[in-house]
Design brief:
By secondary structure, the chain is of the alpha/beta class. The protein contains 11 helices and 13 strands. β1, α1 and β2 form a beta-alpha-beta unit. α4 packs parallel to α5 and α6 runs parallel beside α8. The longest helix has 21 residues. It binds nicotinamide-adenine-dinucleotide and thymidine-5'-diphospho-beta-D-xylose. Thymidine-5'-diphospho-beta-D-xylose (TDX) binds next to α6 and β8. The site of nicotinamide-adenine-dinucleotide (NAD) has 32 residues, from α1, β2, α4 and β5. One of its GO terms (molecular function) is dTDP-glucose 4,6-dehydratase activity. It catalyses: dTDP-alpha-D-glucose = dTDP-4-dehydro-6-deoxy-alpha-D-glucose + H2O. It is an enzyme of class 4 (lyase).
Length: about 325
């Protein structure tokens, strides 16, 4: 099978590519990635002899058409992915997330190629802390940020292309991922690398906001389950019952590092900060037989800490400029 992976040099995409190559000897993988600040070709080093990397823009119709024409399956990860950046400059979010997905949809329509579109639970907006409900496939879209509104837009384009043109596409909306090769701008790697540098974790607001954490390998196993056993035209929510407040995560990390549980810093809150995300993944579990393998968040977190400890060469180059960007907005 010839698989085109967009955004395959980013966090989730590169983990997907490595896992695919390691577990599926019949897969021929081509990565289309623009290598923005968030993409890193080194994340593909362990499998570089089995993967072709095409550096290009998912919103460029010529390169997309050429690569889609030679694929049996497209898995679409490419996106601008960081909420804080979308508040500083939303423009690349509209271009990559909306125009990029449109460009890909037109190409899979022309060539009749199966598409899996990777999206986020943030399209559903946020929940109150004490709301007993969780997001399901039936929850109405209600995105809050420039990032999540562009992801919601891309999902709606996919749904429209399925209905109007019969494109064979599935969508997954996943909760917050953690694991190796995640950019140091994101919450968990930022705090781990601060701690490795002897600094303090930085919490937005009081740390009450809740995220529903899933290990990146469990997310990527779900993507394969949907590609292989899902129904084209359908949406599947992906989550592993991993709700934790940001304060709990920071305190877990402080414990792992043997530091005082209160040794963190409170910094400026994110504008429009979503309070809580929570996924009900019943459909994925019952219809497709998926289950997470990382059932202990604390254990997965400790392994992630070890990965960052052992791969300073990978994260160090981005650390100072990322922190300089945060400092400029009081974070
Ligand atoms: P990331 O920012 O780590 O990686 C994005 C990749 O896309 C990078 O390699 C970047 O170079 C590439 N890219 C950006 N613009 C591009 C363009 N115009 N053309 C081609 N490539 C481009 O993001 P991630 O965390 O790996 O997220 C991957 C996907 O999963 C995104 O669609 C995101 O919305 C979705 N998602 C992420 C999470 C999460 O917790 N990180 C959760 C649910 C869904
Ligand atoms: O330094 C920080 N301190 C802090 O308290 C940072 C960077 C974040 N936070 C908070 C904000 C969020 O409540 O931690 C939480 C997680 O923040 P992010 O890692 O920026 O993730 P989030 O905004 O929840 O979005 C993530 O999950 C859904 C991904 O970045 C998205 O791509 C995905 O769609």
């Amino acid at each position: 099978m010839r698989v085109l992976v967009t955004g395959g040099a980013g966090f989730i995409g590169a983990n997907f590519v490595r896992r695919t190559v390691e577990t599926r000897p019949d897969a021929h993988v081509v990565v289309l990635d623009a290598l923005t600040y968030a993409g890193d070709a080194r994340s593909l080093d362990p499998v570089r002899d089995r993967v072709r990397l095409e550096v290009g823009d998912v919103a460029d119709p010529d390169v997309v058409d050429r690569l889609v024409a030679e694929a049996d399956l497209v898995v679409h990860f490419a996106a601008e992915s960081h909420n804080d950046n979308s508040l500083t400059d939303p423009s690349p979010f509209v271009r990559t997330n909306v125009v990029g997905t449109f460009t890909l949809l037109e190409a899979v329509r022309r060539h009749g190629v199966r598409l899996h579109h990777v999206s986020t639970d943030e399209v559903y907006g946020d929940l109150e802390l004490d709301d007993p409900g969780r997001f399901t496939e039936a929850t109405a879209y209600n995105p809050s940020s420039p990032y999540s509104s562009t992801k919601a837009s891309s999902d709606l384009l996919v749904r429209a292309w399925v209905r109007s043109f019969g494109v064979r596409a599935t969508i997954s909306n996943c909760s917050n991922n953690y694991g190796p090769y995640q950019h140091v701008e994101k919450f968990i790697p930022r705090q781990i690398t601060n701690l490795l540098d002897g600094g303090r974790p930085k919490l937005y607001g009081r740390g009450a906001n809740v995220r529903d954490w899933i290990h990146v390998d469990d997310h990527n196993d779900a993507v394969w389950a949907i590609v292989e056993r899902g129904t084209p035209g359908e949406t599947y929510l992906v989550g592993a019952d991993g709700e934790r407040s940001n304060l709990e995560v920071v305190q877990d990390l402080l414990e792992i590092f043997g530091r005082d549980r209160d040794d963190y810093e409170v910094v400026a809150d994110r504008a429009g900060h979503d309070l809580r995300y929570a996924i009900d993944a019943t459909r994925l579990r019952t219809e497709l037989g998926w289950a997470p393998r990382y059932t202990s968040f604390r254990e997965g977190l400790a392994r992630t800490v070890e990965w960052y400890r052992e791969h300073e060469d990978w994260w160090r180059p981005a650390k100072a400029r990322t922190e300089a960007r945060y400092a400029a907005s009081g974070q």
